[in-house]
């Protein structure tokens, strides 16, 4: 991965770039944004920013297109003649835009084309990235896998599930952070200062996730280990459920999914 280009360094694109920089310290990273001055604090001798998309396309073999959904198709239409089928591998990370729509904008089907959905935890190399493949004349699936493993874990899925993966993996960051915020607020109410509550809650959430990742168990099995009869955990859980905790979360996930599907 000597040269990686990110077209559109907004919040997600910049998170990807920062994650790649940590994993590939010797690689040259190229990022684009209309207002380049917003990125100057992240540049160095191997991290280059420009407002010229075409110049990045000329530099890089791997192009991650992280533009907004309402601009990405026009980008592909405008730059279709600059993509080289013998060189470029394109990975779109735009929400809700299918590989078929991208091919339609490019008016060609001989390009190495993938779709991915990482999340902003790429910044700290803890993203989960869902990946789907389209055409791949350059046979670079393993390289694409390696690229996104550099910023966390990956899962290959059917493209029909990409919107669902977006809700769980990308939007899910916000859901989890909102849950963490509520736990911190509860911690303050029972006596902690905000900084201490934040530290306790953040490590608790990290530990809970690692229990599932490393032990491979269903969450309910781990819950059972801390819910003793007549204990304080079970009464807290029951109060949350009486207030609609699980149903509200599920409804929020489904509502977000329906927004993409419209």
UniProtKB/TrEMBL annotation:
Annotated Pfam families: F420_oxidored, P5CR_dimer
SUPFAM superfamilies membership: 6-phosphogluconate dehydrogenase C-terminal domain-like (SSF48179), NAD(P)-binding Rossmann-fold domains (SSF51735)
Functional note: Catalyzes the reduction of 1-pyrroline-5-carboxylate (PCA) to L-proline.
Binding site for NADP(+): 7-12, 66-69
Domain Pyrroline-5-carboxylate reductase dimerisation: 159-260
GO cellular component: cytoplasm
Family: Belongs to the pyrroline-5-carboxylate reductase family.
Pathway in which this enzyme or protein is active: Amino-acid biosynthesis; L-proline biosynthesis; L-proline from L-glutamate 5-semialdehyde: step 1/1
Catalytic activity: L-proline + NADP(+) = (S)-1-pyrroline-5-carboxylate + NADPH + 2 H(+); L-proline + NAD(+) = (S)-1-pyrroline-5-carboxylate + NADH + 2 H(+)
Protein name: Pyrroline-5-carboxylate reductase
PANTHER family membership: PYRROLINE-5-CARBOXYLATE REDUCTASE, PYRROLINE-5-CARBOXYLATE REDUCTASE 3
Record localization: Cytoplasm
A biological-process GO annotation: L-proline biosynthetic process
Annotated NADPH binding sites: 53
Domain Pyrroline-5-carboxylate reductase catalytic N-terminal: 3-95
Signal sequence bounds: none
Domain of life: Bacteria
Protein's UniProt keywords contain Zinc: no
